[in-house]
């Protein structure tokens, strides 16, 4: 490893000035950010705080290490004997010295002249060492340091340049297009708490201070950082190396630091600002042979920066921005340093604008205004997501993204309607909470008005730029703007409205019961529960602030989103002045708030009739999709008759907008799996699916057409998947023809030429020979191919077949024969997939019953696999007959379930609920299907 020259550092340190800043903001009693943080780390003591850094970094590409030096200006806030910094365990650290460069408060009070004449004093250091089992570095002094003292701490360090992960300070290589030799690059990825792996620091976003960065590089390479280069000096120790020192940053969090050293090619242009706003230098970097592939991204960046400057009311805050398409970048997310962003090559060359917009949003929200705790906190993340979505729509170039927020809503409705949302998965909880909060921002944009909401965000950014913020800072600024614009009366606050949504892991359902004689209605809110039984504790205590935005048939106006009235955490309210009895009402049009709405049967029927009329398009497509989605979800939950929910699909025979079709595929999946326990009804349901989908499938054709939008391509793909799974003969024949080419290949294990969408239909409807061929491909899967291809094959082999003999063969091979090609994780995956259809769990039940002793012995040391198999065999029945079979097995083997006792007991409780659901709904569904098929006919369904 190289040793940094002390004489060079002295020259740099002499130019480093002491920067005085105020004390770090203290945590408030209500901090929505910290409450939802995914990161649990050691918090630093508040006795000291940084006021500035000068960071020196030099990578050694060949050895795979880096070294550096940091000078930290420290302000003592409380009497202390120590300074505690964050430091990663892999860092090698050597404290050079610590100097007091300004007197403390008591000495300042004596005489200002003496203060001015204060001479730096070297402090006595008792110890400097890492804290065991914690990412901390502790410097202890021989005597106490008083509040007000200004210190400079000089630390040398070295560490590994990560090569197998794009985190911290890492290196990567790519082949030179001319010589084919490897070229190195080095870069940093500090978010969220990886700055400590690069240098000892106060690695918390609240410690936001200016920074000077100096980087050593070979002369043939180029270094970039957060700010433009201020000067370049020769390295006297190493020939052909230089030091770039960059301009001092504004106050910056450690996770916003960025450095790249590379030989990549670049495209540059200036983004011209408005009057009195300086131009911004924009540079895009990539491999020389890839630079043309990202040429179009300059247009996206230009548009996005202008839209964001208008949203925030604040121009881009730095003089430049460097954007990289990094070869072999391995992180799951881009690295959004301030003024420097790292993308995967595919993210910059793709058609969409989402990735670019999101990372540019972070330049304002996260870098310019920084959350007091980690920026992954849900409220910061949610606002970034909302502004990204808004910006992407404003770009008007990504058709697929215009389905926002419907696809996200379907997911969070499903998650929050479970008996136990998120399970024990913290990541799912964080993501769904952020998604819900994002929708709360969208709701406020509608209900307060777009201009008021935007001015509220601008007020927030003006107040908190170059500073840190808490969640309630955002709500407060929106509240103040709404009151100023007279959109929100005193004493109502946006914080109160938002908290009613954010603090609950639930969503409401609003039920509208109209009185057609008095033209009034009763509105009732309750917890939306889709998964049975509906026995959630304290559900009667849940109440939300619900905006009642109302559209009436006699005055179809979908532009006015001002609430008719707010339900102010009230269980029930009465509203008056509704239209006459032959006109429908729609509440929560355009999914303004994240909640489904139920109506009385008459209002639903009027909505269904209108959607089936030529006037259907007077209702925007997003609202058409909402009505369909709400209806079938409410029916599934037991709050609406399935005959009404299925009536709401009738308009689709004339519908061609892909957004309206999106909810249908979830309906088919969920309802199909629920009724496949009744073969007769399920066969009729598949006939219904073929009749519903095949006309549009044939109209669109099986292949994309030139110039068609992403939405049409997405719709065609979904249609093909579901019409195939429903047994549509032309689709299955097409799938089998594609699959046959694989079967006829000389070396079928070298690769799979069949599109994924064809594999499940072949395994479901095809021959045993075709299925066996798929099984052999899993058994012989070569190590050089991607394992996710094998996983997909395995899932479809287990989850798709209709024939019991296929499932029994798979269970025999994996469980009884103990084939070495199947790991325990494979078997666990098989059990979870087998239970997704009636054929699977029926066959697994009989297989378990017939081979009970052998299976118990097989899994006696693997209780999680035993429990998983019992779950797959017993938990998915939906009929009285299924319940009786499970109950009989429980009685017969009552003392032999072992660790799976709780599984079978839980299954019996759940099955009773499912049986009740089936008794109530299957006759209704069958009657509706019989009527539908009699009207539309089954001759042309072309089913298997």
TrEMBL record:
This is Aminopeptidase. Residues 584-900 form the ERAP1-like C-terminal domain. Its cofactor is Zn(2+). The active site is at residue 359. It comes from Acanthoscelides obtectus. Residues 50-255 form the Aminopeptidase N-like N-terminal domain. PANTHER family: FI02158P, PROTEASE M1 ZINC METALLOPROTEASE. Transmembrane segments: none annotated. One of its GO terms (molecular function) is zinc ion binding. Its EC number is 3.4.11.-. Belongs to the peptidase M1 family. GO terms for cellular component: cytoplasm; extracellular space; plasma membrane; side of membrane. It is found in: Cell membrane. Pfam families: ERAP1_C, Peptidase_M1, Peptidase_M1_N.
